[in-house]
Design brief:
The chain is mainly β. The chain is built from two helices and seven strands. A four-stranded antiparallel β-sheet has the order 3-4-5-6, with no helix packed on it. A three-stranded antiparallel β-sheet has the order 2-1-7, with no helix packed on it. The longest helix has 8 residues. It is globular and about 50 Å long. The protein starts with a helix and ends in a 5-residue tail after the last strand. Bound molecules: zinc ion. The site of zinc ion (ZN) has 8 residues, from loops.
């Protein structure tokens, strides 16, 4: 019996609930992996710069940008290009 990829493919609405769970979790204990140098740090340990047009988060090891967060006009923009992965505890 063959399983077709199309049988298990849904649109993005299918992960709405899952994303709501993830982004509601306590983030300061989340563990990020830097996409540039591979350093692993809790979010509470990263370097944060708040005096630009947005908030810039840098790796404490290589100082490359992990995240950029901009809030304005009733919206958020989140650039996580510098984070290879983010590990969060499901415990609340
Ligand atoms: Zn780094």
């Amino acid at each position: 019996m063959t399983t077709h990829v199309e049988d298990s493919r849904l649109d993005g609405n299918a992960i709405g609930g899952l994303l709501s769970e993830v982004f509601a979790l306590e983030m300061t204990a989340a563990v990020s992996t830097c996409a540039h140098c591979g350093a692993v740090n809790e979010i509470g340990r990263v370097q944060v710069y708040v005096h630009g047009p947005g908030t810039v988060v840098r790796c404490p090891e290589c100082e490359q940008v992990l995240m950029r967060i901009v809030r304005g006009g009733g919206r958020y923009w989140l650039d996580m290009t510098g984070v290879r992965s983010l590990e969060l505890s499901a415990q609340t």
